[in-house]
Amino acid sequence: MNKFKDMPVGISLFLIFLFLLNIVYFCVISFSEGIFADYGYTLDNITAVAHILIVVFLGILIALGLYFVLLGFIRRDVWARKFTIVFIVWSALWPIWGLLVGNLVSAHVVILIIDALMIVYLLTEYVKQYFEESKIFRYGDWTLYVRIVVLKNDGRERPIYFFSKKTPKSGTPCAMPDGFEVGVSDRSSMPYLQKIGKPKPYKHGDWTLYKRKVRLNGGKVITIYFFSRGKPKSGVACPLPVGFVVGINKRSGMPFLRKQG
User: Fold this and answer.
1) pLDDT tens string 159-178
2) How far apart are CA 33 and CA 163, in angstroms?
């Protein structure tokens, strides 16, 4: 129900109108003065088993068709738009039949025009864009966005991916890029993208291992490793480097790295 409320107004009105049109036509008009009544299938005289089976079968088809239309639109499945067009074409066969036998000609002409307009509506960019959003990656209440930034050092463009619960000032919703998966920050519980197969940061109890590059006075750059319970001002979380094991400072209880052996 919440997803239905989140639909654009135009999509919601289209679905409501589609449901009402089919229910009124097949359940009211067809059995009172329409095509079914023209062949003796009225609600008062449907007593033969064959007649009952036909009516029930058609009712099930219509109910299933409308159910899958609604389900596809709610989930924004890419097949839903084409399925709805097929369903409308199928339902339009009945007023065409009515015109061929001369039953309620004016009413059936109006219904066919409405069916044609609904198909045209489904072919508009507005509806196509609605289903394009199904490709947008979402993680719970978070939506994945991408923003293109220009690197200062070489002028190259680089995509920056980030999650947001609200519409950010810049960036567009996007699909999950190839080769990435979702990670979740232990500190903020905010999702982020990480490369598939990337080693996870090493943890020792409440402590997380970080690394940071520092430049010595002689100009040499080295990597230092350290543990922290909170996110430090600099450094990135990292896995345990090869050839090292964890030791514990007896006085502070803080873990540290030392060479194995």
Assistant:
1) 999 999 988 888 888 888 88
2) 56
